[in-house]
Amino acid sequence: MAFPDCRTTEIYLEEETPAQAGFTRIVGHSPALREVLQLAEKVAACDSTVLLSGETGTGKELIARSIHNLSRRKDRRFVKFNCAAIPSGLLESELFGHERGAFTGAIDKKTGRLEIADQGSLFLDEIGDIPLELQPKLLRLLQEREFERLGSTRTRKVDVRVVAATNRALEEMIVNKQFRLDLYYRLNVFPISIPPLRERVEDIPLLVWHFVQQFAQRMNKIIDAISSETMEALTRYPWPGNIRELENVIERSVVVYEKGNLSVKKSWLAGGSFQAEAATPSPFRRSAGEDREMIGAALAETRGRVSGPSGAAAKLGIPPSTLESKIRSMNINKHSFKTPS
After folding, report:
1. Among the listed residues 288, 316, 283, 291, the one whose alpha carbon sits nearest the alpha carbon of residue 302
2. Closest CA to 40 of 220, 194, 213
C-alpha cells in the first residue's frame, strides 16, 4: 500500500488494514518492521530462547505471541509473567510455585506460572526488573530446564520455550551490578530489537486506520475519512509512547467524533515531559553502512560509553535507549571501543 498523499483534502479509510501474514494484530510494512518479523519467523521454528528489546509500547508482547503462534507449541499455552507487576516477595512463588507451609499464609500448595507453561511458551516481560536474588534460580531453569517449588526439595523438569522482553539496557545494568552476566548470556541467545514508532514512520497511517476501524466498530460509529492535516500531524509527531500512545490518541478521537472527518486536537500530541527527549530528530535516516560508521565514531570518542552527559547517545542527540537498540540490531560490540587501562 502506498504512503497516503497528505496534499489531498481528506484521506479515505480502506475496508481492511493489512497485517503481516502469520502475525496476528501486527500492522505495518516498513523495512524496520519486516526485518523484525523475518527474525521472529525464523526463530519460531526452533526452541531457542529469545530476548526482545525495545522501548515501552513498541509491541514486544505481540511479537512474543507471534513467535509462539508460529511455533510447534502453538496448540499449547502461552503464559505471560510480568516481572515488574508482582511484588518482589511474591515473585518466586508466582513463577515457581510453592508447597503448603512454605511461608506464613501458604495454606495450600500453588502451581507456578512455569509449570502452567509446560509444553508451551513462557513470556517473561520486563525481565530487567527481576530481583538479583531470584536470578540464579532463573539461570538454572534456562540451563537445566529444572527447578524446585518454594519450600520443596523435589526437583521438577519442565519443557518450556522462554521469550523474555525488556525496555531497559541490560548491558548497563550488568556494569552496575544489577543484572547477572551469565543470566544475560542465557537470555540473549536470539536477540530481536523492536524499533520505536518514530523509526517506522511509514507504518503510522496503517496503524491509524487500523485503530480507527477497531474503535469505530466497538462504538458503533461510521468514520470514512481523516483530514490530510490530521494525518500529517500524526505522521510528524515522534510518539514517545510509541504504538500504545497512538492507540490511546485514536481511541480518544473516536470517542469525541460526531460527523465529518476524524480529527485530533494538537493538545493531545503535546507529549508532556517525554516530548523533549523524543522530539529530537533521529540521525538514522541513512544507509546501514553510514549508520554503523556514525555510531562507531561516537562510541570511539566516548570509549564505548552510551549513557550520561558525555556518552555516545548525548553526542548523537538521541535517547540512550534508541542507541542501545541500534547497537543490538547491528551487532556492534560497544565494549571493543573501551581503551585498556
Report:
1. 316
2. 194
Question: What pTM, to 2 d.p., does this model score?
Answer: 0.74
Phi, psi of 181 (to 5 degrees): -65, -40
Are 243 and 207 a contacting pair, CB within 8 Å?
Answer: yes
Whether the Cβ atoms of residue 76 and residue 59 lie closer than 8 Å to each other: no
For residue 292, give Cα distances in angstroms to 136, 192, 316, 332.
35, 18, 13, 8
- For residue 6, the one-letter residue type is C
Mean pLDDT, rounded, for 214-234: 91
**Which cell numbers in the block locate residue 128?**
530487567
Is the confidence at residue 10, as pLDDT, over 70? Answer: no
pLDDT digits (tens, 9 = 90+) for 19-64: 444 566 788 889 989 999 999 999 999 999 999 999 999 999 999 9
Cα–Cα distance measured from residue 190 to residue 50, given in angstroms and rounded to the nearest whole number: 5
Please work out, in degrees rounded to the nearest 5, the angle formed at the alpha carbon of residue 188 by the alpha carbons of 187 and 191. 125
* DSSP-derived 3-state class of residue 227: strand
Q: Which tens digits make up the pLDDT trace of 117-134?
A: 999 999 999 999 999 999
Taking every pair of Cα atoms in the chain, the longest distance, rounded to a whole number of angstroms, is 70
261 neighbors 225 (Cβ within 8 angstroms): yes
* Cα gap 311→212, rounded to integer Å: 40
Q: How does strand 10-12 pair with strand 225-227?
A: antiparallel
**What residues pair up with 191 in beta bridges, in sequence order?**
51
Model confidence pLDDT, tens digit, residues 238-263: 999 999 999 999 999 999 998 888 88
- DSSP line for 260-304: SSB---GGGG--GGGHHHHTSPPS--S-HHHHHHHHHHHHHHTTT
